[in-house]
Specification:
By secondary structure, the protein is α/β, with parallel strands linked by helices. The chain folds into 2 domains: 4-103 and 219-230, Rossmann fold (3-Layer(aba) Sandwich), CATH 3.40.50; 105-216, 3-Layer(aba) Sandwich (Rossmann fold), CATH 3.40.50.1860. It is built from 11 helices and 8 strands. Strands 2-1-3-4 form a 4-stranded parallel β-sheet, with helices on both faces. A 4-stranded parallel β-sheet has the order 6-5-7-8, with helices on both faces. Strand 1 (4-8), helix 1 and strand 2 (38-42) form a beta-alpha-beta unit. The longest helix has 19 residues, at 12-30. The termini are close together.
């Protein structure tokens, strides 16, 4: 049994969701009423946001590597970052990490590939939607990733930072997000939507069926982590 180390707090609401999902996935597989071994290092979200706003990805990587080292020192044997946005610097982080890391982007790509999807929309923070790491990693397997229109990206980012990361989930915000999904289905021909922010499943996981699947990156990441834990 491998001990998981989780970089958390980015933000707190999704950290709680990760913890619950990990326990549920682990117990579903083991069927013995036990609980998974994990170590959580909760970071200061505002520090990471400031670094992202400054596009200081070198310091983002430095911070993440130092915090992962704390997990390794505490006994973690592999790890994950429970947030999409820091994966902007994932290659630099992984190359210096004291323990193996599971990429949320690569895990999601592998699920899309297994489902035969080749054109997906992406919702996330503004940092994630403006970055290239999702399109580049998916493109290596022949999968196109389509972003919302700039005005829709601005709306999603504003709601993400001002509501979702603060644990505010409003029906009107969900309805507006679903309208953007509908537009992308009609205008961009997307076959599925990547929930590329780990707070997005908290508002969209139980949304009405819109005719395309949502790739819940938090749940996908957790399933990959539990598989590694039990391997």
């Amino acid at each position: 049994m491998k001990t998981l180390g989780m970089i958390a707090g980015l933000g707190p609401e999704s950290t709680i969701d990760y913890y619950r999902l990990i326990i549920a996935a682990y117990r579903d597989r083991t069927r013995d009423d036990s609980y998974p071994p994990m170590i959580i290092n909760s970071l200061n979200l505002q520090q990471i946001i400031r670094l992202m706003e400054a596009q200081d990805y070198v310091t983002v990587a430095d911070v993440m590597v130092a915090e992962i080292q704390k997990l390794a020192n505490a006994g973690a044997e592999f790890g994950l970052i429970s947030s999409n946005t820091p994966h902007i610097a994932f290659d630099a982080i992984r190359s210096r990490s004291a323990i193996p890391l599971i990429s949320i982007v690569e895990a999601t790509r592998d699920v899309a590939l297994a489902q035969g999807l080749n054109r997906l929309g992406l919702f996330g923070s503004g940092f994630t939607m403006k970055a290239k790491f999702y399109p580049e990693i998916f493109a290596r397997k022949g999968i196109a990733v389509v972003m919302p229109k700039p005005e829709d990206q601005a709306y999603i980012h504003q709601k993400y930072m001002d509501e979702l990361v603060k644990g505010i989930f409003l029906p009107e915000t969900r309805a507006s997000l679903m309208k953007i999904v509908d537009r992308m289905k009609k205008e961009d021909g997307i076959q599925a939507l990547i929930l590329g922010g780990t707070e997005l499943p908290l508002i969209l996981r139980d949304a009405p069926d819109c005719g395309i699947p949502f790739l819940d990156t938090a749940r996908i990441h957790v399933n990959a982590a539990v598989q590694e834990m039990l391997s």
